[in-house]
Structure formats: structure tokens, C-alpha cells
Amino acid sequence: MQLPPEDRTLSPYTGYTRAHWEAAADALLAAVEPYATEDRALYHLPGDRQSWSGRLSDGLEGYARTLLLAALRQDGPALERYADGLAAGVSGVWPRIEDRSQPLVEAASIAFALRITKPLLWDRLGDAVRQRAAAWLGDALTAQAWPCNWELFPVTVAGFLASTGYEPDASRKAIDRGLERIEQWYVGEGWYTDGDGRKFDYYNGWAMHLYPVLHAWLAQDDQLADLYGGRLSRHLEDYARLFGADGAPMHQGRSLTYRFATTAPLWLGALTGHTPLAPGETRRLASGALKYFLDRGAVDSHGLLTLGWHGPDPAVLQGYSGPASPYWASKGFLGLLLPADHEVWTAVEEPGPAERTDAVTSITAPNWLLQSTSSDGLVRLHNHGSEDVRYDPYYTRLAYSTVTEPSPSYDNSVLVNGDPSRTEIVPLGVGEGWVASRHTAAAGARVTSLVLARGAVEVRAFRVDGAAEGTAVRITGWSTRDGVSSELLPAVGLEPSGAELAGTLGPGPSLFVALARLTAVRNPGDLAETASVEFTGGDEFQVTWAEGEVTRVRMDAERIAVF
User: Fold this and answer.
1) Considering only CA atoms, which of 424, 429, 428, 435 is closest in space to residue 380?
2) Burial letters 401-411, b for 16+ CB under 10 A, else e
3) Contacts 24+ apart (CB under 8 A), 520-523
4) In-domain check, residue 518
């Protein structure tokens, strides 16, 4: 992908300005155009992968998600081509929107695109085409959604249809129904779970916040804007901390192939005025993520976004991932709706949280602890509250980072009798420098887990109950990649066993403690000298840090005390 020369005047960190975002959008749009069908209603991108929804639905996905990019770019000539495709699509080419079907997802992208380009696209269509398009979209008003972020797709479609005067009563009912549903999943402090349970990931930003805030903004509904905008602003306080200094988003959760869609809530805050972030910080974080992926092979030699993370990578895909799925990255271009003279585009970039200082940040709602170090720009997420067994290992590992990915060998896990299961996660609290949880392991064993974090150092402690005496326990640490080192040392009840630590359960509850570190700093010093751990009897141990401070911990089967 050819972009303009990097500009270090306003962009000392990334070199990216609005011109780079525009050029990236133009290049992505140009690259997909050869793969449109003759009537332009479908975009069949190359490759032998097909989603579980089938080729026709995948072709609609290609149309809808690249239309979204053209709409955000406000690209008139491209939109004319998409107008032709719309006319053909609603005349019998596209599959109908049915209960829990993929076209419901794509209808939301189409409706939003039509709404923000109304003078450029919708208003130029003939009456007959508009009527057929409204009828096709109208099925979304009554289609049953999966009980998760999908509930917001009918809201988005209904918002557009209501703005055109189409079935106002049905549109209002669809909007009210969807917004009422997501209230069940709002857990406070700017966080939603994506449906029932404790499913916390990037869907908070690119779905759960995105659609309600955009709906309120476009509808000019001040009451809803205050509600959803306030939640977004609070969320961004935490969200900004999930990006490494190199621009990498946290490698956790599903649908990671959407890549720089992670920037959508950053732009959304600036677009609607609901953000705690300075303009220069918003652009630095967003441009950092775009640059991170473009520099690492996200776009192939044909200019197409690949199915993967950096380059192609089937490990990050789900059954619903089709050839055009990565183009939900189009959401990341939401900032192009800001005028060129907006302060987000004209301010000098400011460093993000991971660059400013070392920090250990408690996030109460998902029961996460974020640990970042400015010396190497790494961010680590200690997960003691997010669980979605459908997409393990991207939810149930003990820790994730901006520089590692879950490994097939079960990194950041506790294996009881060789079984890495971590289900029924119960948060036990998060505080200053610590986070804890309890989960069910093999054969019904219960594992109480705690991590203490300081700088790049972690003290990981595990209490295991309910398993037979003599049962083997193994502890694993971080996976590694070039330029990053991972260390794991025994402290209480463990012995080295290759790259892992091993222990054995006693006649009652057993305590195991380890030191861990993930760092990109050269010669970081001896991990064993950063902290010493002493078992003080019963359920208690204490940590003496290199600076001389002492942290005492009590771990029983029901609660944690750190003092």
C-alpha cells in the first residue's frame, strides 16, 4: 500500500495525518473493486475460505463492509458504483434478512452508510429502488437477533428507515427493543458484557458503544446522547490503556481479524464530544493502530486485507469469518467524518498511556488488571473476570498482552492433572496492584488465582482445592516472540519442569506461587531479585519487593485479602 511520506511535524510518533488515513481508505477501496460482480451487488474476494453462512452471504458481506468504507470516505464516484450494486441487490440478488442470519449484520452497515451519505447516494436513487431497498431492510425490524451485540443491528437499520419516514411505528419498536436489551448487559463504569455472562472484549467498543452512540448522535436525541455518550467517555478512560506504544491493540477476544476497527470508539468519542482524551492522544492511538497493522502485513500484495492479525493467520478466525470479514476494519475510518480542520486532525500527537509512565490499573467491571511499562511500551492484561468458552483460548487464559498471542501449549494457564480447563470464573476483586478470581478446573477442582503486579514483575499465586492428594499441577507463563523475553520462576510449592513449573497437591488445600515477567527491555536484571516470597503458614504468604515494601496476602477458598 502506497501512502504519502510520513509527516513528523504534527505526528511525531506515527507520522500519520489525515492524508494517510484518506490514502489508506482509497487504496483499500481500489483493491476490492476488481472482485465485484458485474452488477456490483456482491464482492467475492479471493481465497478458498467460506464462512458458515455460505458464498452468497459472504458476497453480501463484501459489498456491505466496503460500502461502509466508501461512505466514511464520502467518496462520490465509489458511492455511484455502490448505488448500482444496491439497486441490483434489492432486486433479488441479496439473501433475505431472516432470524439470526448474517444478512442482518450486513444490513446495519448498509443502513448506516446510507444514512451518512443520504445526499450522495440515497437521494439520487429512483423511487422504485428506494422502495425495494426499504422493504429489504425492513425485514430487520422484526428479525430475531442473537442475544448479544446483534440486538443493535435492528436499531441501526430502524434509525435509518425512521429518518426516511418508512414504517415509523415498527422502526420505533425495533429501536426501543434493542436499546432495552442492552441495558441487561451494562455492568457499569463504561462496560458491557456481550450478552449474558461475562463476555468482555473489543465488542464493547466497536459494537456495544458504537451503535447506540451513533444512533443518538444521528437522531439528535440529547437524552440518549447524554446516557450513551457518558458511558462511552467512561469506557475510553480504560480503553486507551489497551494499546501498546507500538500501536498494537490487546490480543484478546474474538474477531481479531477486524484489526484497526479497535480505533472506532476513539474516533467516536471525538466525533460526538464524549471523550476524556486530548485530541492529540486520540489521533496518536488511532494512527498507531493503523500503522501497526499496515507495517506488519495486514494488506497483501493485491492490496487486500487478509484473514489474520499481521498477515494471514487462521488461529484468530471463527466459523463466521468469510473472505470479506476483515473489512469491518472499515469502522476504524470513522474519524474521516470529522472535518479536516477538526482539532483531532490539527493537534500535535500526544503520547498514549503506555508511553507516559509505568502503570498498574484496576478495571472493576470486567475484573481486569492492566500492567504497562513505559520502558518497552508493553501492556499486559490479567484476566480474572472474562469468560466465553465458545472462543477459548481468547477469553479464558489468565493473561494477555499487546505483544503475545495465546499459544497451543496453553500459555498463562494452570493445569490440574494435565487439564487446562478454566470455567465458571468468579471474580474475587481487583485492587491497587492486584486482581483475583476463582474458577473450576479438572474433575471439579477449584482454583483460586491471584496476581500482584509491580513494574514488569508479577507474583502469581494459586490455591487448589477439591482434588486428590498427589494430583499433578503445572503452571505456565507467557508465550514469547522475537525481541520479547518471558520468565517464570518457582517461589512456593513448585519446581522447574522445562519451560513450566510443576507441583503436587498435598492432603488438603495447596498453595503454589511463582514469579513471572514479560519484557522487551534488554538486560532487565535478575527476576529472582525483584521480589522474594515467604509462605507464612495456613492460607497466608508475604512478598518482599526489591524496594523493601512488604505485601501480605491471605487466600482462603472464598475470598482474598491483600494488605
Assistant:
1) 435
2) bbbbbbbeebb
3) 520/376, 520/377, 520/378, 520/403, 520/483, 520/484, 520/485, 521/373, 521/375, 521/376, 521/456
4) yes
- The b-or-e profile of 198-216 (16+ CB within 10 A means b, else e) is bbbbbbbbbbbbbbbbbbb
pLDDT in the model for residue 189 = 98
Count of the separate structural domains present in the chain: 1
- Parent domain of 516: 357-562
* 26-51 pLDDT per residue, tens: 999 999 999 999 999 999 999 999 99
| Whole-number Å distance between alpha carbons of 544 and 474 | 24
For 525-537, how does the pLDDT look when each residue is reduced to its tens digit (9 = 90+)? Answer: 999 999 999 999 8
- At residue 443, the pLDDT reads 82
Contact 239, 203 (CB under 8 A): no
pLDDT over 70 percentage in the chain: 100
- The stretch 52-59 carries a mean pLDDT of 98
- Give CA–CA dist 20/141, Å, rounded: 38
Q: Which residue has the cell 434509525?
A: 159
CB within 8 A of 287, min separation 6: which ones? 11, 13, 14, 16, 20, 21, 247, 349
Handedness of CA 374, 367, 396, 462 (dihedral sign): positive
What pLDDT sits at residue 444? Answer: 86
Q: What share of the chain is helix, strand, coil (3-state, %, to 5)?
A: 40, 20, 40
CA angle 493/497/501 to nearest 5° reads 40
Can you say how many angstroms the Cα of residue 431 is from the centroid of all Cα atoms in its chain? Answer: 23
Under 8 Å between Cβ of 263 and 204: no
Average pLDDT over residues 256-262: 98
| Whole-number average pLDDT of the chain | 97
Assign residue 521 the CATH number of its domain: 2.70.98.70
Pair 543, 452: CB distance under 8 Å: yes
Q: What is the C-alpha separation between 154 and 107, in angstroms, rounded?
A: 8
Query: Can you give the pLDDT at residue 538?
Result: 85
- Asked if the peptide bond before residue 393 counts as cis, ω within 30 degrees of 0, the response is yes
Per-residue HEC secondary structure of 208-249 comes to HHHHHHHHHHHHCCHHHHHHHHHHHHHHHHHHHHHECCCCCE
In sequence order, what are the beta bridge partners of 299? Answer: 305
State pTM to two decimals: 0.97
Task: Please check whether residue 95 lies inside any domain of the structure.
Answer: no
Q: Is residue 484 domain-resident?
A: yes
pLDDT, tens digit (0-9, with 9 covering 90-100), for 350-399: 999 999 999 999 999 999 999 999 999 999 999 999 999 999 999 999 99
**Under 8 Å between Cβ of 326 and 307:** yes
The CA-based angle 63-201-399, given to 5 degrees, is 135
Query: Does any domain span residue 133?
Result: no
The half-sphere exposure of 94 on its side-chain side, counting CA atoms within 13 A, is 32
Please say whether the beta carbons of 214 and 268 come within 8 A.
yes
pLDDT at 557: 78
